[in-house]
Design goal:
Number of strands: 10
Strand order of the largest sheet: 3-4-7-8
Largest sheet: 4 strands, antiparallel
Order of helices and strands: HEHHEHHHEHHHHEHHEEEEHHHHEEH
Structural class: mainly alpha
Bound molecules: (2R)-2-(alpha-D-glucopyranosyloxy)-3-hydroxypropanoic acid
Number of helices: 17
Distance between the termini: 10 Å
Low-confidence stretches: 1-7
C-alpha cells in the first residue's frame, strides 16, 4: 500500500487491530457468530471467510472454526447453513422451526438448519495451510493435523454436492432455497420465487427487523413468507434430497455456488496431496473439476456477458445482471475469449464503470438491471466478503492491477464505513449489521496480503 500523503488520523492505520478486536468479541470459543445480534449463530460460509481472516491471527484457531462447523455435518455429507448456538435466542427461523430431527441424517447435536451454503471451506482450509508455512514448524505440524481431520469431511461434503445436488450430472449444483445461495433476495430468485405458492404457513415473528435501522434494507414480508414456506416443504419431505427433487417448487442451478465448488475442488485436490490421499480420491476430484467447468461454460450468456443461473422447474436461464454472473472468474482457468468478455462486463457501466458508484466496487445487482435497489440487501448493495472472493479470483487469474484496485477501494470503503455487512453503492452508507465478522476477517486478509507482498 502506498503510505505517502496519509494523515496520521487515517482509519486504515489501526484497521487490523479493530478487525481483530471485532472477531474476538464475536468469538464464542471454537466458533464465531456471524454478527453480535442479527446473526448470533454459526453460519457455514461466513465461517469459511472468518477462518481465512483468523488465519492471519492464529492458524490453529482458524482451523478450529472449520472443525466446529464440520462437527455438525449431516450423514449425507451436507454441511448445514446454520449451526445453532443453544445459548442464543432472537433469530428466526430457530432450530425448532427447522425441525431437522425429522431427518435420519441430521446430527442429534448440535441443532442445525436443513439447508447448506456455498462450499468455501476447502479454500479456507488450504489458505490456513499456506499461511501456516510462514508461522513456524509447530504451526505447520498443527495445520497438517487439521487437514488430516478436515479432508474426509470436505470430501464427503463435495461428494454430496456432486451427487445429491446434481442428479443430472450437469456439473452445476441445485439449490432448494435462496438462502442456500447466500444471496437471499437477489433478483436471481425473483422468477422462481414468484412461482412458489405459499400454503398453510404456521405463524411466525421476524426478529431480523429489530436489528436494522430501516426495514427496507432487508427482504420484504412477502419474500419471508415464501422463504418460510420452502422450509415447510423441505421439512415435509424430511429434508430428503431425492424426494425434494420430485416435489420441491424451487430448484435452481446456482452458477456462483457451482463456481465456488470448482475452486474448492481445486483446493481439495491440493489438500489431498498434503494428506497423502488415495489416487482414487484425486481422480474423483479431477472428474468433478472437469464437469463443473463444462457446466459453467454451458451457462454463458454472450449478450449479457455473464454466466446465468438455470431454473430447473421453469427449464429456463435466469436473465438478470448480478455479481453471480462473474462465476467463471471464480472457477478460474478462463480461456482468453471468456476472460476478455468477463472483464469487459466488469469494466462496463453495468458494474464497476457505473458513473454513480461511490467506490469502484461491484454492486450485488447491476444498476442497469430492472431489479436494482441500492439499499435492499442483495438487490444492489456491495458486500465486502464478495469483493474479497472476486479479488482473490482476479489475483488467481493474473489480473493483478484490477485486483489491487479492488483491494484498495475495499479498504477505503471499510475505513470510511467500518465492518458493515453491506454498503449502499452510490452513497457508501454502511448498512445491515455494523459489526459483521466476515467483513472484519476479509479486511485482515487484505491487510496481511499487502504487508507480505502477496497481492
Ligand atoms: C439467512 C449470515 C448470513 C449470510 C448470508 C446472508 C444472510 C441469512 C439472513 O446472513 O442470510 O441465511 O437471515 O438473512 O444473506 O449470505 O451467510 O451472515
Amino acid at each position: 500500500m502506498d503510505t505517502t500523503n496519509r494523515s496520521t488520523a487515517d482509519p486504515r492505520d489501526d484497521m487490523a487491530a479493530r478487525a481483530a478486536d471485532l472477531l474476538r468479541r464475536n468469538d464464542l470459543g471454537g466458533w464465531t457468530k456471524a454478527a453480535p445480534a442479527l446473526y448470533p449463530h454459526q453460519w457455514s460460509w461466513d465461517s469459511a471467510f472468518i477462518a481465512i481472516g483468523l488465519a492471519r491471527l492464529d492458524t490453529r484457531r482458524a482451523a478450529r472454526e472449520l472443525q466446529t462447523l464440520c462437527a455438525a455435518q449431516w450423514a449425507t455429507g451436507k454441511l448445514p447453513h446454520i449451526v445453532f448456538n443453544p445459548e442464543a435466542s432472537g433469530y428466526f427461523p430457530d432450530a425448532a422451526r427447522w425441525g431437522c430431527a425429522v431427518s435420519p441424517h441430521a446430527p442429534q447435536a448440535p441443532e442445525t438448519s436443513g439447508l447448506c451454503q456455498p462450499p468455501v471451506h476447502a479454500i479456507a482450509a488450504r489458505h490456513i495451510w499456506e499461511v501456516a508455512q510462514g508461522a513456524g514448524e509447530e504451526a505447520v505440524a498443527d495445520a497438517r493435523a487439521s487437514l488430516q481431520d478436515l479432508y474426509p469431511r470436505l470430501l464427503a461434503w463435495h461428494r454430496y454436492l456432486a451427487t445429491a445436488r446434481d442428479p443430472e450430472g450437469s456439473g452445476l449444483v441445485t439449490i432448494y432455497h435462496p438462502w442456500e445461495s447466500g444471496t437471499d433476495n437477489s433478483p436471481r430468485w425473483d422468477g422462481a420465487m414468484a412461482a412458489v405458492v405459499v400454503g398453510d404457513l404456521p405463524p411466525y415473528t421476524r426478529f431480523d427487523l429489530q436489528h436494522v435501522a430501516d426495514a427496507s434494507q432487508r427482504p420484504t414480508n412477502e419474500e419471508y413468507d415464501r422463504y418460510l414456506w420452502l422450509v415447510e416443504v423441505l421439512k415435509g419431505v424430511r429434508y430428503d434430497d431425492a424426494e425434494a427433487y420430485k416435489v420441491h417448487p424451487f430448484l435452481v442451478k446456482d452458477v456462483l455456488f457451482s463456481a465456488i465448488l470448482v475452486a474448492a475442488n481445486e483446493a481439495l485436490f491440493e489438500i489431498a496431496a498434503v494428506v497423502g490421499a488415495l489416487d482414487d480420491d484425486r481422480a474423483l476430484i479431477d472428474g468433478w473439476l472437469d464437469r463443473g467447468r463444462r457446466g459453467l461454460a454451458d451457462r454463458w450468456d454472450p449478450d449479457l456477458g455473464l454466466c446465468l443461473d438455470y431454473d430447473v422447474r421453469a427449464a429456463a436461464p435466469v436473465r438478470v445482471q448480478t455479481v453471480a454472473g462473474f462465476a467463471p472468474l471464480v472457477a478460474g482457468h478462463l480461456d482468453a475469449d471468456r476472460r476478455a468478455d468477463l472483464l469487459a462486463t466488469w469494466d462496463s457501466a453495468a458494474f464497476l464503470g457505473h458513473p454513480r458508484l461511490r467506490w469502484p466496487l461491484p454492486p450485488s445487482t447491476s444498476p442497469e438491471d430492472p431489479g436494482f435497489r441500492p439499499r435492499s440487501y442483495w438487490r444492489g448493495p456491495t458486500w465486502p466478503f464478495m469483493n474479497w472472493l472476486l479479488w482473490w479470483s482476479l489475483v488467481g487469474a493474473g489480473e493483478g492491477e484490477r485486483a489491487e484496485r479492488l483491494r484498495r477501494a475495499s479498504l477505503d470503503q471499510l475505513a470510511s464505513g467500518g465492518f458493515a455487512e453491506y454498503f449502499e453503492p452510490f452513497t457508501g452508507e454502511p448498512l445491515g449489521s455494523l459489526e459483521q465478522s466476515w467483513t472484519a476477517a476479509v479486511a485482515l486478509d487484505w491487510l496481511a496480503a499487502d504487508a507480505n507482498g502477496e497481492s
